[in-house]
Design goal:
The protein is of the alpha+beta class and 475 residues long. The chain has 3 domains: 309 residues, Tachylectin-2, Chain A (5 Propeller), CATH 2.115.10.20; 86 residues, no CATH class; 63 residues. The chain is built from 9 helices and 30 strands. The two termini are 16 Å apart.
Length: 475
């Protein structure tokens, strides 16, 4: 079985910077900045703006818009109002409330890959793809970034040249929620008082719900807790704005919800087919610094994104990956349960998962510590091909594979008795040494293309003939 590791490598870059609002501790810090600026004359204001534009304008798109947006966040809470500030002072105050964040200063790793939603303009034998990666910066906060490229008829891979800009997508403030969906999420919360939803209309925004709760007279006990629970659900389920004229590679999904404030980890995208309709889903681990939850990204074009929290008794641990289609009328996912095994889950509801069973446990010495999936399975004529990761001696990670029955994916019909991809001597060193890892693969004719993290410090590509791999299972 010949595995071809391509010379192309994608490395983390400290130059990948975004702008974030500068949160300052204490209630007085921002007020003190305003008070200092009150006495700043226009000449000095203009001098400061010239400097900040010289230093930062070419590093971000529409930096004036960024400054004004951050200025407006202070206006909304500043009691005295700031309407007397000139436009230059408003921009400058916004600049004082802005910081740069290097999203890849620590690592760029754990890729997933899917067919691009637009395949126009290609020559025969080419396929365009979208690849997501986990981007990690200061404080080990993880966000999601994208690259696009083309696989040609010979299996050669070309990455599109990025623009060099990175823009964090903003949370959509006027997103409308359906009460039935929120009720379904809340019903899994022990002790939830449904009267907290009775006061809400059939559809509403997060701000409308908050205002209604604020106006309620003296809520107590379970009602107070349940209203807080609804606000938590609204925070975790959100939409992202679609800024015009941004390439996919410029778009950054940075944490917005409290549940994911310390990271959106290891997204596993899959192109999902159902009744002739295609859509993309990406499961990821939301981390708040203490606990993890599983969230789902939904998109049709990698421009508009909806974030949903998954719930149900089977939503435990991490590493969940959705099958690319329903099996016997049900959604199916594989996941890592108990920290060391792979489980399989079934549901009639994409968001609610209560049915789970063991799929496989560590068997070979190179996976004695733990096993998990490496993204969504690929449908072949012989079965569902699922890449797995195994952790063995000295916390060494390798990639292997199993084959599941097409009609009953709880049955393993083939399992490799050796790693498929392991770190070679040139790949051992990095942010996390001795690790190869992937969150997905793509089929290109008879070729499997597997992007994989190299010790969490770079991303490489491996290719293998599909029939060669299937022959290794010796069915």
């Amino acid at each position: 079985m010949k595995i071809n590791k391509h010379p192309i490598k994608l490395f983390a870059s400290a130059k990948a910077v975004i702008t974030l609002f500068l949160h300052l501790p204490g209630e007085d810090r921002a007020r003190h900045i305003v008070e200092r600026m009150e006495n700043l004359d226009e000449e000095e204001t203009n001098e400061c703006m010239v400097k900040v534009m010289h230093d930062f304008a070419n590093r971000h798109r529409n930096i004036h818009g960024i400054f004004l947006r951050h200025f407006q966040r202070l206006v909304n809470v500043y009691p005295r109002g700031l309407s007397h500030f000139s436009l230059q002072k408003k921009l400058l105050l916004g600049a004082f409330l802005t910081k740069e964040y290097s999203i890849q200063s620590a690592a760029l790793f754990n890729p997933s890959i899917v067919s691009h939603p637009h395949q126009q303009g290609l020559t025969p034998g080419q396929q365009r793809f979208v690849m997501s990666l986990r981007s990690t910066g200061e404080g080990h906060i993880s966000s999601i970034v994208f690259h696009t490229g083309i696989i040609d008829e010979d299996g050669d891979i070309t990455l599109d040249m990025p623009t060099g800009y990175f823009t964090p997508l903003q949370k959509k403030a006027d997103a409308v929620y359906d009460k039935i969906f929120i009720h379904a999420c809340a019903a899994n919360t022990p002790g939830f008082n449904k009267q907290a939803l009775d006061v809400l209309p059939g559809s509403f925004t997060a701000e409308q719900a908050k205002n209604i709760f604020t106006q309620m007279a003296n809520p107590v006990g379970s009602m107070t807790d349940s209203m807080a629970g609804v606000e938590e659900i609204l925070d975790a389920n959100y939409e992202l704005e679609d800024p015009p004229d941004l390439s996919i590679s410029e778009r950054v999904i940075f944490p917005h919800a409290k549940e994911e404030i310390m990271g959106m980890e290891d997204v596993r995208f899959v192109k999902f087919e159902d009744d002739g309709r295609s859509y993309y889903y990406g499961t990821y681990t939301a981390y708040n610094g203490k606990q993890i939850k599983t969230h789902l990204i939904e998109t049709g074009d990698f421009k508009k994104f909806t974030i949903r929290r998954l719930y149900g008794s089977a939503i435990k641990d991490k590493g969940m990956a959705l099958f690319p289609e329903k099996v016997n009328g049900k959604f199916v996912m594989v996941s890592r349960q108990g920290g060391e095994n792979i489980s399989i889950m079934f549901s009639d509801d994409l968001y609610c998962w209560n049915e789970c069973q063991m799929l496989m446990e560590p068997k070979f010495n190179w996976e004695f510590v733990q096993i998990g999936n490496c993204g969504s399975p690929l449908k072949t004529d012989m079965g569902w091909l699922l890449l797995t990761h195994g952790v063995g001696l000295m916390r060494t990670y390798v990639i292997s594979a199993v084959l599941l029955d097409l009609d009953d994916p709880t049955k393993i019909i083939g399992r490799l008795d050796k790693p498929l991809i392991a770190a070679d001597e040139e790949e051992r060193e990095g942010y996390v040494p001795n690790v190869v890892y992937t969150c997905g693969l793509i089929r290109h004719g008879n070729l499997l293309v597997i992007p994989y993290a190299v010790s969490d410090s770079a991303t490489g590509f491996a290719t293998i003939a599909l029939h060669d791999l299937l022959n290794e299972f010796k069915l």
